[in-house]
């Protein structure tokens, strides 16, 4: 049986400069169901496709609140995500008790990046097999969206998707990238659901059972800035959004049909 002598631990480089343990962890992220995140000037939205292992099991949670101003979406091993989410909760609570305010998102993401990278620097440990999209708001520019990878690398994003078949969702996000900054909450959710639909296999549809939506943002009223807390919406709470995204898609298809017919007439003429 073939044996790779360079994947026994996360501190050994192959002759090509690769760390196979990190690549295996990244592959675990690609096997998870897709999650999508989008940020605008006022809100950040996370949309997730939940998966059940079999007919008799419930759908696994994909969105987790961390603090009032921040939450995460996961793709990969849920057990590893639980470890990281508990660590993030502890850091947010400690920061609030020490400084009396919300923890800046950049600081929080840097901490989990350092924690994850430590597992690639010590024998006997392994990288976390989970990817995260971290969405929240703070005093440094309002809403933010960050991507976390098992290697410990973190990046701020305008919009992103991770998980199985996420490339289709990213293609949709790239096409509509310019419009996200000025979108309100409802528009961001609609875009997120459309991106999620792009990643579905042909015989699957978004339903209230397999779809979760989370929203966090800021509102300015009478010159005062108020944080809209991170909230996860499941079940019947998302039914109206799913129906709205479906209606938009049907409208787009109906609108494109006359244009195609007109084009055909021009060619024939």
TrEMBL record:
Intracellular or extracellular location(s): Cytoplasm; Nucleus
SMART domains recorded: Proteasome_A_N
Ranges where the Proteasome alpha-type subunits domain occurs: 6-28
Record field: compositional bias (Low complexity): 256-269
GO cellular component term, pick one: proteasome core complex, alpha-subunit complex
CDD domains: proteasome_alpha_type_1
Keywords: Cytoplasm, Nucleus, Proteasome
Record-level GO BP terms: ubiquitin-dependent protein catabolic process
Residue ranges, annotated region (Disordered): 244-269
Subunit details: The 26S proteasome consists of a 20S proteasome core and two 19S regulatory subunits.
Protein family (similarity comment): Belongs to the peptidase T1A family.
Protein name per its UniProtKB record: Proteasome subunit alpha type
Species whose genome carries this gene: Coniochaeta pulveracea
């Amino acid at each position: 049986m073939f044996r790779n002598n360079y994947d026994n631990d996360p501190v050994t480089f192959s002759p090509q400069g690769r760390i196979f343990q990190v690549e295996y962890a990244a592959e675990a992220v690609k096997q998870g169901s897709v999650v999508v995140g989008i940020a605008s000037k006022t809100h950040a939205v996370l949309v997730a496709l939940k998966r059940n292992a079999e007919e008799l099991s419930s759908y696994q949670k994909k969105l987790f609140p961390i603090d009032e101003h921040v939450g995460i979406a996961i793709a990969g091993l849920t057990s590893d995500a639980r470890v990281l989410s508990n660590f993030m909760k502890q850091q947010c609570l400690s920061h609030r008790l020490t400084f009396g305010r919300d923890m800046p998102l950049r600081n929080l993401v840097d901490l989990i990046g350092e924690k994850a990278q430590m597992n690639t620097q010590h024998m006997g440990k392994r990288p976390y097999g989970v990817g995260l999209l971290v969405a929240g708001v703070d005093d440094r520019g309002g809403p933010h969206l960050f991507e976390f990878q098992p290697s410990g690398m973190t990046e701020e994003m305008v919009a992103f998707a991770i998980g199985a078949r996420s490339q289709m969702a990213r293609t949709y996000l790239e096409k509509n990238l310019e419009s996200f900054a000025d979108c309100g909450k409802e528009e961001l959710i609609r875009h997120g659901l459309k991106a999620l639909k792009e990643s579905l296999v042909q015989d699957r549809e978004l339903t209230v059972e397999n779809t979760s939506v989370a929203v966090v943002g800021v509102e300015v009223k009478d010159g005062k800035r108020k944080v809209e807390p991170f909230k996860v919406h499941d079940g019947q709470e998302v039914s109206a959004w799913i129906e709205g995204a479906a209606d938009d898609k049907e409208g787009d298809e109906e609108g494109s049909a006359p244009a195609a017919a007109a084009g055909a007439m021009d060619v024939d003429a």
